[in-house]
Write a structure and sequence with these properties.
Strand content: 5-15%
Strand order of the largest sheet: 2-1-3-4-5
Helix content: 55-70%
Order of helices and strands: EHEHEHEHEH
Shape: rod-shaped
Number of strands: 5
Largest sheet: 5 strands, parallel
Structural class: alpha/beta
Radius of gyration: 33 Å
């Protein structure tokens, strides 16, 4: 697996029915440090997604057979955390609405500036890294809280034992005073 410049691994699935478009974007992303898989049909992309569990799907929209919108709906239903990026030759209102309704997080019109795609992926990587860091911190916090609870339990037990010892010492002192206050036996 390739590691991203930011650290960690960020898996991207690129799907486009134009092999030239798919391969050139995949090459750019690979050279930029992303772990990339490529598909030329939506059905192949869905199969890859089920096996690879990508962090991000970059999909062409207008493809024969299953189009990118249907692919996006299926991916969103199975893998809600996957970020969806649509790339399409059309940018009319109907297409934009279809893409949004399919659950895509971002949409761009071809030709797309590669820098824009890289900036979006960098942002998504940052969000993923932040979520993972937060999860680690939450786990560490839970462990610390458990350790503190155990320490408190031990201290409470020690305090209980000390109270018992103090009670016993007080009783011994009372008995000793009583013994001193009693007149000596006559006999």
């Amino acid at each position: 697996m390739t590691h991203c410049p930011r650290g960690g691994t960020f898996r991207v699935l690129v799907v486009d029915d134009s092999p030239d478009n798919a391969d050139s974007l995949s090459l750019l992303l690979t050279l930029s440090g992303y772990d990339v898989r490529t598909a030329y049909t939506a059905a192949a992309a869905l199969s890859l997604a089920r096996g690879e569990r990508p962090d991000c799907l970059i999909s062409d929209i207008n493809m024969p057979g299953m189009d990118g919108c249907e692919l996006g709906r299926l991916i969103r239903a199975e893998f809600p955390a996957v970020k969806l990026v649509a790339v399409s030759g059309r940018s009319d209102t109907a297409q934009t609405n279809r893409v949004r309704e399919a659950g895509f997080d971002y949409q761009f019109t071809k030709p797309t500036d590669p820098t824009t795609i890289l900036e979006v992926l960098a942002m998504l990587q940052d969000v993923k890294d932040l979520a993972e860091s937060t999860k680690l911190i939450a786990g560490e916090t839970k462990q610390l809280l458990t350790a503190v609870k155990n320490e408190v339990r031990e201290v409470k037990q020690e305090v209980k034992e000390l109270k018992q010892e103090v009670k016993e010492l007080k009783q011994e002192m009372r008995e000793a005073r009583q013994a001193e206050d009693e007149p000596p036996p006559t006999g």
